[in-house]
Amino acid sequence: MNLPLTGYRVGVTAARKVDEQVALLERRGAEVVWAPALSMDPNQVDDASLRAATLDVLARPVDLFLATTGIGMKAWFAAAESWGLLPDLLEALGRAEILARGPKSVGALRRQGLRELWAPDSECFDDVLAHLRDRSLDGLRIVVQEHGQSLSMVAHALRRQGADVTTVTVYRVASAEDPEPMFRMVDLVADRALQAVTFTSAPAVAAMMEAAGSTGRRDDLIGAFQADVVASCVGPVTAAAFEMWGVPTIFPERSRLGAMVKQLETELPSRTSGTTLEVAGHLLLVHGETVLLDGVETKLSPAPFAVLQSLMVNPGHVVSRRELLAALPSGTAGSEHAVEMAVARLRASIGTRCVQTVVKRGYRLAVPAS
Question: Is 113 exposed, middle or buried (0-12, 13-18, 19+ CB in 10 A)?
Answer without folding.
Answer: exposed
